[in-house]
Amino acid sequence: MRERNQFKLTIVGPGAMGCLLAATLNKQDCHVSLLDYKPDRAERLKKTGIKVMSSNEAWTVFPNVTAEPEALGAQDWVIVFVKAVQTADAVKRIGPLIGPRTLVVTLQNGIGHESTLSKIVKPELIALGVTSQGATLLNEGRVRHAGSGPTTLGLVVHNPEAKGRLISLVTLLNNAGWPSQVVEYIHPHIWRKLIVNVGINALTALCCLTNGKLPQHPESLRLQKLAVTEAWTLSLKKGIPLDLSLEEAHDMVNSVCKATAENKSSMLQDRIKNRPTEIDYINGAITEMGGELGVATPVNEVLTLLVRLNSRLGWKYPVNIKRY
Q: Angle, nearest 10°, between helix axes 218-238 and 298-313?
């Protein structure tokens, strides 16, 4: 077994979460590279480093940042942190990183990423995950660490050899102060996170509300409950063992709203900056699966259409959203 700083690990995407994880690992002398698709930005990040700020500390590190995957070669692990809408483009670029034993891990929002990743890597070498780490990209290479929480990972297909390498990755993350665990069946965890995103992201983006404001308005609270009910019902139809009653699902979403009260959801941040959103991988995915399985999802469909229209029109958001 190689020492942890001899492993090759590449994080794909210099967004908030990608920068946070790269900085966290680099701080612990782990060999980590950060892959960007913009050569000019990669050069700037290489020179200025990544700065992480939290409530009690700040630090700057200088991980290897590149836009040339060919220069990195085959990796032990590739962690995908790009936006869901960028997954297909990322897959086209990460071929040089994939060797016969490379484990590809996605910690993206939404569902369905494994089908895109399987175009470049075997399903038994793909791991899905969810994380409660919170990060906001303040500027290029400048991240606010909003809060720490657990990360849960699991393989798409049972594979003892790949599981051993996934456990090694989790050990590396834990040693770096990024609490993580491996589970046998990851899909219930993916769906719990999906249900939370279904109940928060689109509504915050459309109403220009921070997470904590959603339950404070009867209209947004009602819409949230309706959207979550549809997603929860669909999970039953698909046979996903959530181990949550409908009431517990609503309570889970409400708890996340309270715990992240001042946060702007990733979808709201995307809309403020007029970037493509992940709506088709969250509420849109619920609507698509509902149509396939005969489960009515009218609220999720309306939310999806409104976010798409909003993006098309390029509606400008007020700078200060706290007054809502």
A: 120
Smallest Cα–Cα separation from 80: which of 13, 166, 26? 13
Which residues touch 142 (CB under 8 Å, ≥6 apart)?
A: 50, 51, 53
Largest CA distance in the chain: 56
Q: Identify whether the C-beta of residue 19 lies closer than 8 Å to the C-beta of residue 50.
A: yes
> Domains of the chain (ranges plus CATH)?
4-182 (3.40.50.720), 187-313 (1.10.1040.10)
For residue 34, give Cα distances in angstroms to 94, 127, 142, 211: 12, 19, 14, 30
For 298, the 3-state DSSP assignment is: helix
End-to-end CA distance of the chain: 54
Q: Which residues contact 80 (CB under 8 A, 6 or more apart)?
A: 12, 13, 87, 90, 94, 104, 105, 106, 107, 108, 113, 117
Strand-pairing partners, residue 79, are 11, 105
- Name the H helices within 239-321: 246-259, 266-272, 283-293, 298-313
Residue among 192, 49, 56 nearest 130 (CA): 192
Rg (CA), the chain: 19
Instruction: Summarize the confidence of residues 152-177 as an average pLDDT.
Output: 96
pTM comes to 0.90
Q: Report phi then psi at 182, rounded to 5.
A: -105, 135
- Give the pairing type, strands 142-147 and 134-139: antiparallel
Cα–Cα dist 297/227, whole Å: 8
Rounded to 10 deg, the angle between the 283-293 and 187-207 helix axes is 120
Reported as a pLDDT band with limits 50, 70 and 90, residue 31 is confident
Pairing of strands 50-53, 58-61: antiparallel
What H or E segment, with its residue span, contains residue 3? none
Find where tokens 């959801």 sit: 265
